[in-house]
């Protein structure tokens, strides 16, 4: 593969999606192409530098070239205002193909095979999170809450999806589904409805991957589980006593009959011993109705040697549980937390400024900019997994945001012919040997 192979491949996926962006401008004011506007916005997110375009304009004046052109293919550098004005009419769904094509590339390169877990399936975690709130700024896509004290609050939220694995730090971002007003309904949209739409959209794209969906107790409802099964996916969802009362009544009855299986393991933490006690049962009814689904239930309780409980979790799922796989099933279910830590927390605290208002607009802008930010996160992960030079530098520097702080500073003062030239300079500066020779 050529030196710029992975980088060029990824940006080709983005370029194909951008080529389908509509140009809604009227008149002759077309100094900047839609491609330049979109690629310019992406450069800001990829370099994690809100001032990226301003710095490139300065480099252009001094050197007659800039990183916007050499790294991102921006022929004419647009202003922030041009970006906000002309991306507002671009539906973020036009970027969904980038997530799919990147996933297919990671499959082709045998990367996703390393993520397989229980039942040789890929774990895909879903979780909703907010990224904007205001009492004054709003658009057509905002959710609206009218409070008793007279305040009206406008918000944006999204259901994020990511491939996760128990022993792998990386997560692979998949297409998001935005929580937003839906045509033909007066009801406020919500996380569950958005998750169902994600299933409808994603199932045809990822049906061949053998997916097990992970989610918290909000997802452990019969309508949503039926959607998962209809999509020919597996699932492991958190099950809590307060939200699944009938299920736990059934489990209590089965326990009295001696039909609950259990397994006990002793673990050494390096400081003390812990007792890990698993319980499970298959084919228990989810709710008190004739059409109730049967689910498989598993539980883990961790205690100290003195008997004090320190951790508890339980899940329901489609995987048949046995003594041979109960530990793997529970471990897979617990991996759901990675979408909160390695995905949402990274986006909010590690340089992506997930909750920053880069631009709100009147229609799609907030969602389209967020999608570009998610694609930058996805590309960063893919480069770290596939580009040996990038991987070595990331392993050497302590944090993801530190890596991009270095990238941001370097691209403020120097113009690079391509990604690999930038990586080579960073390797030299860190006194690291080139892993590609």
Overview of the molecule:
This protein is an alpha+beta fold and 437 residues long. It has 2 domains: 5-94 and 359-429, no CATH class; 111-344, Alpha-Beta Complex (Transposase Inhibitor Protein From Tn5, Chain A, domain 1). 41% of the residues lie in helices and 20% in strands. It contains 15 helices and 10 strands. Strands 1, 2, 3, 4, 5, 6, 7, 8, 9 and 10 form a 10-stranded mixed β-sheet that branches. A hairpin with an 8-residue loop joins β8 and β9. It starts with a helix and ends in an 8-residue tail after the last helix. 40% of the residues are buried. The model has no long low-confidence stretch (mean pLDDT 93).
What is this structure's SSE topology?
Layout: H1 5-18, H2 34-46, H3 52-63, H4 67-72, H5 80-87, H6 96-108, E1 122-134, E2 143-146, E3 152-164, E4 172-179, H7 191-206, E5 211-215, H8 222-230, E6 234-238, H9 245-256, E7 261-268, E8 273-285, E9 294-304, E10 309-317, H10 326-334, H11 338-349, H12 365-386, H13 388-396, H14 400-413, H15 419-429
Parallel strand pairs: 1-5, 5-6
Antiparallel strand pairs: 1-3, 2-3, 3-4, 6-10, 7-8, 8-9, 9-10
Helix pairs in contact: 1-6, 2-5, 2-12, 3-14, 6-12, 12-13, 13-15
What would a concise description of this structure say?
The protein is α+β, with helices and mostly antiparallel strands and 437 residues long. It is built from 15 helices and ten strands. Strands 1, 2, 3, 4, 5, 6, 7, 8, 9 and 10 form a ten-stranded mixed β-sheet that branches.
